[in-house]
Design brief:
Largest sheet: 5 strands, mixed
CATH class: Mainly Beta
Strand order of the largest sheet: 4-10-9-6-7
Order of helices and strands: HEEEEEEEEEE
Helix content: 10-25%
Number of strands: 10
CATH superfamily: Macroglobulin (MG2) domain
CATH architecture: Sandwich
Strand content: over 45%
Radius of gyration: 19 Å
């Protein structure tokens, strides 16, 4: 019986250490027009050029308390903004915003990076040019 208890305790601590060593993971990422009550609003992958401001919402799990992630906003593979965000619990929701100029049409993405610079997740989206008449 002691042997089984020893095996179970060892297994439990091994799994706990492995999860802790794995570090933060992105459970959810969305580009949206607003964040209300800590939830993304009007999440999409395509927006019109007159959008003015977009938000990147991220739910992170497995992070150490008092750590950080960064949202790195790219326009046509050129970095436009790098925003460091605090993570204060194992499961944490956070977001950043980016003002979008009307002539910045085309391909965008937001990479979510760990404090060490590892890309944990990425979300691509498009800003569509306004139709001219």
């Amino acid at each position: 019986m002691r042997f089984i208890a020893y095996i179970l305790i060892t297994l439990f601590f091994s799994l706990a250490l492995a999860q802790e060593a794995a570090g933060p993971a992105v459970e959810e990422i969305a580009v949206c027009t607003a964040v209300e009550n800590r939830e993304p609003v009007a999440a999409d992958t395509s927006f019109s050029a007159d959008i003015a401001t977009l938000y990147c919402f991220t739910k992170v799990t497995g992070a150490a308390a008092d750590s950080s992630i960064s949202h790195v906003w790219y326009y046509n593979d050129e970095e436009k903004a790098r925003i460091k965000l605090s993570v204060r619990a194992d499961a944490w929701r956070t977001w950043s915003s980016k003002q979008i100029a009307e002539d910045w049409t085309g391909n965008w993405r937001v990479d979510v990076e760990s404090a060490a610079g590892t890309v944990l997740g990425s979300k691509a989206f498009v800003i569509k040019a306004a139709l001219t008449q």
